[in-house]
Every structure is written in structure tokens, then in C-alpha cells.
Amino acid sequence: WKQDVGPSNRQPPYQHQQQNPFVHERINKLEDTLEKFMHASMTNQKNTELQSEILKHRWDSWLNNYQINRQVIFQPTPKLIPKSIVIQLLPALVKLWEEGLEII
User: Fold this and answer.
1) Going by C-beta distance under 8 Å and a sequence separation of 6 or more, which residues neighbour residue 103?
2) Are 17 and 11 in contact (CB under 8 A)?
3) What are phi and psi of 33, to 5 degrees?
4) 59 by DSSP, 3-state: which?
5) pTM score of the predicted model
6) Which whole-number Å values give the CA distances from 3 to 6, 8, 9, 12, 43, in the listed order?
7) How far apart are CA 56 and CA 62, in angstroms?
8) What is the mean pLDDT of residues 31-40?
9) 47, 76 Cβ separation under 8 angstroms
10) Which of 18, 48, 53, 71 has fewest C-beta within 10 Å?
11) Is 66 in contact with 60 (CB distance < 8 Å)?
12) Which of 22-26, 65-69, 84-88 has the lowest mean pLDDT?
């Protein structure tokens, strides 16, 4: 076997070798792409959170209107309700009761 006599021409792996322009350009493009992706992701996240808040607000508004309308519809009246109407309303009232909704 041949014994090494002088210093090696190879650089140790821990030393940073000079990058050729092509590699440097590729790294710059990758960094730009990553930055654009991160920006788009953050923008999408903010839009998703905003849409979620809008949906929650709409749901709360609908629920309030529903509860107000339900109170108006189902408020007891001093008049007697005809039996035929009670028979028609009974399935809907049973369904509301089964779903756990209050009948006021």
C-alpha cells in the first residue's frame, strides 16, 4: 500500500467549499419560494380565521332570530287552540321536545 507523504488535496468535509453560481442561484430561488409559500400560508390562515369568525357571528345571529321567532310562535295564548290544529302541531312539538329544544 502507498503511504501518504504530503498534505492531501482533498478538503476536510467540515470546511465550506465555494459554491458555483448555479447552486447559489438555486438556493436563492428556493429561499424565495419558501418565503412566498410561508406568506401565502399565513395569509390563508388569517382568511380562514376571519371566515370562521364571520360564520360564528352569522350562526349566533341566526340562532338569536330563531329563538326570538320560536318564542313568538309558541307563546301561550289565552284562547283555546282547536283540536285539529293541536293534532297538526303535535308531531312538530314532539320532534322539538325529542331534540331537547325548549318549548316556551
Assistant:
1) 74, 93, 96, 97
2) yes
3) -65, -45
4) helix
5) 0.41
6) 9, 12, 15, 19, 62
7) 10
8) 94
9) no
10) 18
11) no
12) 65-69
